[in-house]
Amino acid sequence: MMIDEKIINKIRKVLALTKSTYQEEAQAALLKAQELMAQHGLTMAEIEISQETGKEKQVEDICISEKRRNTWFEKSLAGIIGENFRCHPYAVLGEGIYFIGLKEDVEIAKEVYLYALNTMLYLSNNYVKTNRNPVVSINSRHLKNDYLTGFLKGLRDKFKEQIESKGYALILAKDALVIQTVNEKKLQKGQKSRIVTGGSADAKEAGYRDGKSFNEKQKIIH
Hints:
This protein is mainly alpha-helical and 222 residues long. The chain folds into two domains: 1-56, no CATH class; 57-212, no CATH class. It has helices spanning 5-16, 23-40, 44-47, 72-84, 103-131, 140-166, 176-185, 201-212; strands at 59-66, 88-92, 96-102. Strands 1-3-2 form a three-stranded antiparallel β-sheet, sandwiched between helices. It is globular. Residues 6-44 form the DUF2786 domain.
């Protein structure tokens, strides 16, 4: 099939608008890009050569959060952000959490991950401080884990609903070069973390609400 360069360039220009700081404009651009790709039977691999003519795509494999010990919620959050920002996350014991993706995608995913992590920790610590009941024998750390579990589920559902309602699936597909880089690295799946919770339904519900309403474009902590 002959690919029309005019259409390719048009879609690239529309995709450039998805980087807008205005959420409504970015979402409209994503929908328009998907509509054009579907209309002309094009894939991301065919149009996503580079935002700058003449330059090849650049895949980065960088540490986004240096940690001697990667907590269960940091790894879970990295999985959610990576999946929704076209990056492949993985953790290295004693080093931290890494993202593999196209340069521009990794930069955005890292920023969103760190902001989401800071927001989640701030809100969970505040919840425990406000709702810890000395009469009820629930360990503070376990109560915090209840909240974090809810937050992560809410965040995951938020992105899932966006994909289903806005039709983002095509846009969020990982680039073929990223997939190739991940396969060549031959990463091994780590052991599943053991999470000890306090069994507080209220904490999970509060966390879920906050995770579901999280807005990666609007900073709530100054």
